[in-house]
Amino acid sequence: MNSSIKISPSILSSDFSKLGEEVKALEKAGADYIHVDVMDGHFVPNLTIGPEVIKKIRPFSKKVFDVHLMISPVDQYIEKFAQAGSDIITFHPEATKSTEGTIKLIKTFNKKVGISLKPKSEINLVRDYLDQIDLVLIMSVEPGFGGQKFMPEVLPKLKELKKIIDKEKYNVDIEIDGGINFKNSKAAKEAGANILVSGSTVFNENGGDLKKILICFVKTNK
């Protein structure tokens, strides 16, 4: 696992009327990844964007598109999201009949694979697949809406996951998403996260100065 912190701003909190420009601005400001939250109004109680939107914004940035699929059933959409320009495709084990099958399907498109755990989802849902995937996304809010408060009760799960990854020497990143701000991001990093997803803080703090905000995240977590 890479020990240096990466920042993956979530475009869920951006201005959708100028989404391409927002993505371009995030790259210019120094974002490591672009985090894309995909929701279907079924697996989670909200509806966001689909593969066509990702395809449209892909030319605006060469950064890694970190795509979190909160949709069920997930397999039938993997190809479309892969072809739209996703670089990392993350899914929930509860959204598929076969976690291993979905992992293999994503890999057929030469994409990196992530598995996401909701706040109450157990590590056992991902433990047997750590040698097959690239990333585990720990949700620190219930998935579905931006702007929620960080749930510190997920930190013990993050610590346990980090111990397993270190012990077995797996090359797996740990990402955390949900209510991440300057204060709690430090606790998340100390617990083992090396990729921070943030939407509301990135787009709403410091008068919307993206570069200043991203620098603050990096400085806080050195």
Can you give a write-up of this model?
- This protein is α/β, with parallel strands linked by helices and 222 residues long.
- The protein contains 9 helices and 8 strands.
- It has helices at residues 19-29, 51-57, 75-84, 99-108, 124-127, 155-168, 182-191, 200-204, 210-220, and strands at 6-9, 33-39, 64-70, 88-91, 112-117, 135-139, 173-177, 195-198.
- An 8-stranded parallel beta sheet has the order 1-8-7-6-5-4-3-2.
- Helix 1 crosses helix 9 (210-220) and helix 6 runs parallel beside helix 7 (182-191).
- The two termini are 16 Å apart.
Could you write a compact summary of the structure shown?
The chain has 222 residues and is an alpha/beta fold. The mean pLDDT is 94.
Task: List key phrases describing it.
222 residues; alpha/beta; eight-stranded parallel β-sheet; 9 helices; globular
Strands, helices and their partners?
Elements: E1 6-9, H1 19-29, E2 33-39, H2 51-57, E3 64-70, H3 75-84, E4 88-91, H4 99-108, E5 112-117, H5 124-127, E6 135-139, H6 155-168, E7 173-177, H7 182-191, E8 195-198, H8 200-204, H9 210-220
Helix pairs in contact: 1-9, 2-3, 6-7
User: Secondary-structure element sequence?
Assistant: EHEHEHEHEHEHEHEHH
Globally, the shape reads: globular
Q: Specify the helix fraction band.
A: 25-40%
- How far apart are the termini? 16 Å
Estimated structural class: alpha/beta
Number of discrete helical segments:
9
Gyration radius from CA atoms, angstroms: 16 Å
Mean pLDDT value: 94
The largest sheet is: 8 strands, parallel
Which strand order does the major sheet show? 1-8-7-6-5-4-3-2
Low-confidence stretches: none
Would you count the extended β strands for me? 8
Beta-strand level of the residues, as a percent range?
Answer: 15-25%
